[in-house]
Amino acid sequence: MGAILCPPGPHAILLVVSVTQPFTDTQRRAAEEQLGALGGGTWRYSMVLFTGVDKLPKGVFIEEHIANTGEALQWLVERCGSRYHAFDNTRKETEDNTQVPELMEKVEEMITDNQGWYFEVNELILLEEEQARRALEEERMRMEEHARQREQMIGGPPRGVCVCVCVCVCVTE
User: Fold this and answer.
1) Which of 116, 126, 115 is nearest to 39 (CA)?
2) Element of type H or E holding 80
């Protein structure tokens, strides 16, 4: 989890949404579930970062896109306290490119609104994630050992055949 890499905790959580893909109710539920899993209060530290606004039809601004895209996207923006920023992917790093400084200003405003507080990640959640990672690693090692034992019992795999062990992790959008 990236949150443990920025002690004492993140001051902002950016939810990146491309305007070129429809934001569905499934994605809304996934965002709600993932932020909810971090513990209470995550939404007050969250902001939507729209990318690819250069792909919007000429004359359509991000506000219109939010209003016309559907309830799922409107819900996300509202849940983030109507905090959002838009990036035009065609603008390159030039002197007149103010996208990043404007984003940083908005993040600083959010920090001020939160009185300088940062989001404290629930230690129990981090412990559960670490235990899940360890369980997956132990299962992978057990499967490898099982494959080695099977090879020893039958004299190894036939020539030209590859024995693979795979551990799958299911992640929702």
Assistant:
1) 126
2) none
Each residue's pLDDT tens digit, 19-37: 888 889 999 998 888 887 7
Rounded CA-CA distance 47/39 in Å is: 17
User: Which residue reads 């129990």 in tokens?
Assistant: 124
Asked if 163 and 147 count as a contact pair (C-beta separation under 8 A), the reply is yes
Average pLDDT over the chain, rounded to an integer: 77
Cα–Cα distance for residue pair 23/33, rounded to 1 Å: 15
Distances 35 to 19, 150, 167 between C-alpha atoms, Å: 21, 43, 25
Measuring CA to CA, how many Å separate 39 from each of 33, 96, 120?
10, 39, 9
Q: Which residue has the higher pLDDT, 106 or 2?
A: 106
> What is the C-alpha separation between 123 and 39, in angstroms, rounded?
10
Instruction: Please write the tens of the pLDDT for every residue from 41-61.
Output: 788 888 899 988 888 888 889
